[in-house]
Amino acid sequence: MKLKRTKLGTAAALLAVGALALSACSGSTRGEADPSESAGAGFAADATIGVSLPWLGTQNWKEAETLFTKDLKDAGFNPLVQAADNKVPQQQQQIEAMIEQGAKVIVVGPVDGTQLGTVLETAHDAGVTVIGYDRLIENTAAVDAVVQFGSIRTGELQGQSLLDGLAERKGAGPYNIELFGGGPADPNAPNFFKGAMSVLQPKIDDGTLVVVSGQTDFTQAATQDWDNAKAQSRMDSLLSGFYSDKKIDGVLSPNDGIARAILTASEQAGQELPVVTGLDAENESVVSIWEGKQYSTVAKPTEELVGKTIDLIKDLQSGKGLPTPDETADNGKKDVDVYLLDPVVVTKANAKEVFANDPARLALLK
Ligand code: BGC
Question: Model pTM greater than 0.85?
Answer without folding.
Answer: yes
